[in-house]
Amino acid sequence: MAGLTGEALEIARSEAQEAVRDLRSRKTKLDQDALDLILTDARSHYAWQDRSVPVELLHRLHEITAAGPTSMNTCPARFVFVTSAEGKKRLAKSLKAKNIDKMMAAPVTAIIAHDLEFWRHLPFLFPHEDRRPHFDGKPEHSEVTAFRNGTLQGAYFMIAARALGLDVGAMSGFSNEVVDDEFFAGTTLRSNFLCNLGYADESALFQKLPRFAFDQVCSFA
What is the DSSP letter of 68? Predict the structure, then answer.
């Protein structure tokens, strides 16, 4: 896929700029309820209602997640939605004992992974300049870039899920090696973290834990 040039490029840029201006004229910021839903009062959930998540909603979730920015539009994140009994059984092999019930009860558990060879897709994702030489033959640089940007996409994924009315419960209590052997053997994909998705049973919640104040963790330079 070749990048746009000349008049076509100018038209595309003009349309993109106008779209941003139009959006900002309609919505300059989120209200407090919206902020509470996606971050301020959002919670990690551990118990789930027996209620399925429509496949169409997972498609929409990916569509929103994919719109988030990544370095050079690398988009290295890959998502495996584990929903079947067999898939759950395979995933359970990787989990610490205390996390197995949480995962089994969730309608969907997403494996948030990244592709170490994301750069092979750059002619499509970043068509106006060939950036593959930045990564070809440089596995350490590729891995760092994939992990960093894949993690960003994982965060977009959780916020987008909440915005769509889903609840999330991210998990790191598992073996990445076992997940990679079970789901990604023979590929260039590597797991990052897991995220349960569904509609929460709030009766399992406890009080929200403390957070640092601005002056404790923020500074100016």
Answer: S
Amino acid, res. 218: C
Mean pLDDT by 10 residues, the chain (221 residues): 83 95 95 97 96 98 98 98 98 97 97 98 94 97 98 98 98 97 98 98 94 98 97
Residue 184 has a CB neighbour count (10 Å cut-off) of: 18
| CB contact at 8 A, 117 and 188 | yes
In this structure, is residue 23 part of a structural domain?
A: no
Which residue range forms the structural domain that includes residue 87?
A: 43-203
Res 1: pLDDT: 58
Tell me, what DSSP letter sits at residue 40? I
CA distance 61 to 184: 22
SS3 for 136?
coil
- State the CATH number of the domain containing residue 147: 3.40.109.10
SS3 154: helix
Closest CA to 111 of 73, 164, 150: 150
Which pLDDT belongs to residue 159?
98
Which pLDDT does position 128 carry in this prediction?
87
Q: Answer yes or no: are the C-beta atoms of 109 and 103 closer than 8 Å.
A: yes
Domain tally for the chain? 1
Burial class, 121, CB count within 10 angstroms (exposed 0-12 / middle 13-18 / buried 19+): middle
Domain contains 148: yes
